[in-house]
UniProtKB/TrEMBL annotation:
Top-level taxon: Bacteria
Protein name: DUF4268 domain-containing protein
One Pfam family named in its UniProt record: DUF4268
Lineage of the species this protein comes from: Bacteria, Pseudomonadati, Bacteroidota, Flavobacteriia, Flavobacteriales
Annotated ranges, domain DUF4268: 10-136
Species of origin: Polaribacter aquimarinus
């Protein structure tokens, strides 16, 4: 087991190493749609690339999510492993709409031997997700 300080240091090292190994400006929060953001997720047991829909207005969230559902088949052609979750619960208890691709390999942010495979997954998956977003940005924004 790691102390909180050790775990925090490993998390920081994981993200710093990722940024230095693969320097690139990602779309992430720059979708130009308030409440719609791409995220890299990593913890002790799993990693994923996500598109989170979480505006303060639940009706707006639902409209964006339904817009993404209308593109589901097209997205599945690019990312067959994609999961649509209209009731994803964050650790803080907040419920959001999340569209994500989980890393299916062995991973733990506490195990440096698993980092490289995760980084490669991040690069490949986020790139495909961003390309899809740019291709259908006008459709997604049209709610």
């Amino acid at each position: 087991m790691f102390s909180k300080e050790e775990a925090a240091k490993l998390r920081k090292e994981f993200w710093t190493s990722f940024g230095k190994s693969f320097p690139r400006k990602w779309l992430l929060y720059n979708t130009k749609i308030k409440g719609l953001s791409f995220k890299f997720v990593a913890d002790r047991k799993k990693a994923a690339v996500c598109l989170d829909i979480e505006t303060p207005d639940e009706l707006v969230n639902l409209l964006y999510y339904e817009q993404m559902i209308s593109l589901k088949t097209l997205l599945e052609n690019e990312l067959p492993e994609v999961i649509f979750d209209d009731g994803y619960q964050l650790e803080n208890g907040k419920q959001i709409h999340r569209i994500y691709v989980p890393f299916d390999g062995k991973f733990s942010i506490h195990n440096k031997n698993t980092w490289r495979d995760c980084y490669e997954f991040y690069i490949e998956t986020m790139n495909a997700f961003e390309l899809f977003y740019y291709e259908y940005e006008d459709v997604i924004k049209n709610i």
